[in-house]
Amino acid sequence: MKESLLDIICCPLDKHDLELSVDEREDDEEIVSGTLTCTDCGEAYPIEDGIPNLLPPDMREA
Amino acid sequence: MAERRGLADPVYAPAEDSGLLAEAAAARARGTVLEVGTGSGWVAERVADVDGVERVVGSDVNPHACRRARDRGVEAVCANLLDPFRGAAFDAVLFNPPYLPTDPDAEWDDWQEAALSGGASGRDLIEPFLDDAGRVLAPSGVALLLVSSLAGFGEVIEYALDGGFRAETVREESFPYETLSVLALTMDN
Predict the structure, then answer these.
(1) pTM of the predicted protein model
(2) Which NCBIfam families match (chain A) (predicted)?
(3) DSSP string covering B59-72, please?
């Protein structure tokens, strides 16, 4: 995902901002893996293979 | 039928409804666009080439679909409907929902079912989408919703009007078992 996606996405549970922590970046722009954490409720959402998984925890695939 | 619809594949393949939605988007989508339930990303990829469209994000509840869409070059987000999107973030939101009315006892409980089944009424995903669409649309934004007569065209219109939208049919095509329409929904303000 691109960092500018943060202007568009929010926590699915309470709509607060997400804080980005990057594990792996590609070509400076694309974030391949990392975590998005809600600044309010603290729920963490993984970024894997460039795709943020913003499903609520009870809908994530096991 | 199973082979034609590609039921062995966990991702919905583009069909007549996808083409109709892409045509409507070419006429009406501008600025920052979200395609909800992007599936293979086929519609989103086409919308990215439309004049005046600056950015297209594709979301899907199905992680297989998200990967497929990303492989096509679509910015993908794994999401349930509009849940993780900010208020007023989009100039256009597109949705070709799962709309086949389905007997609960006959449901398959897999990704193809999630892509096709709209519950007993056919509107299980359409109604929550309409409940939240006004929130994510920028002022003067438009939601383009594919509606099949199988899900009840009149019922969908009525639900949208009750939710404060104005509705206009921008595309319509009849098939032997259903009529497909694309509604352009704008907020009354």
Answers:
(1) 0.94
(2) Trm112_arch
(3) EES-HHHHHHHHHT
